[in-house]
Specification:
By secondary structure, this protein is mainly beta. It contains two helices and eleven strands, in the order E-E-H-E-E-E-E-E-E-E-E-E-H. It has helices spanning 18-21, 161-170, and strands spanning 6-8, 13-16, 27-30, 36-45, 50-55, 78-83, 91-103, 113-118, 130-132, 138-145, 156-160. The strands form two sheets. Strands 6-7-8-11-10-9 form a six-stranded antiparallel barrel. The protein is globular, with a radius of gyration of 15 Å. The chain starts with 5 loop residues before the first strand and ends in a 5-residue tail after the last helix.
Length: 175
């Protein structure tokens, strides 16, 4: 089994990182109150590391997050990352936007990659969790860290909300 994070964009849809669910045979979503709802993967883009899940039944009293326009993100902006690092649920780390990386040399011509680099801690289990701006809007989806030890050493990356929105919600899959 694997472990990751995610966030609700409706009472039945969840955004997460593709690497959290790509090879999963079964996906269960556990909420803070302990409720577990089975889900299915609707779409996943490995090169952009974003995925959309559909709950088998809607979540009552769902807390839905708003995705912001990540084109407005500036280097030096304060950010917060929420997730379940190492299985510790609802953990928050804070930091700053250190850079914005547009991967124009991506190996897949069907997807674009735009990562927000941060010094906010992103550890195993944070993947798929939201990166918030100071307004409480989602500007990125926690994706990966670059580390020699496997633990957080200061360079984390989140896929931009605009890329996630475009791939998961605006453009239907071509397959």
């Amino acid at each position: 089994g694997g472990l990751g994070s995610g966030f609700m964009i409706s009472d039945s849809q969840i955004v997460t990182a593709a690497h959290v669910v790509q090879v999963a045979e079964k996906v269960d979503v556990q909420f803070l109150d302990g409720e577990i709802i089975p889900a299915k993967v609707i779409s996943a883009y490995g090169t952009a590391d974003v995925a959309l899940l559909e709950l088998i039944w809607p979540r009552k009293n769902a807390v839905v997050l708003k995705m912001a326009d990540s084109d407005n993100v500036k280097i030096g902006e304060r950010v917060f990352v929420v997730g379940a690092p190492y299985g510790l649920g609802h953990s928050l780390s804070s930091g700053y936007v250190s850079g914005i990386i547009n991967d124009t040399e991506d190996k897949n011509p069907f997807t674009n990659s735009e990562y927000i680099q941060t010094d906010a801690a992103i550890n195993p289990g944070n993947s798929g969790g939201p990166m918030f701006n100071m307004k409480g809007e989602v500007i990125g989806i926690a994706s990966r860290i670059y580390s020699n030890s496997g633990g957080f050493e200061g360079i984390g990356f989140a896929m931009s909300s605009n890329v996630a929105n475009k791939l998961l919600l605006q453009e239907p899959g071509i397959w």
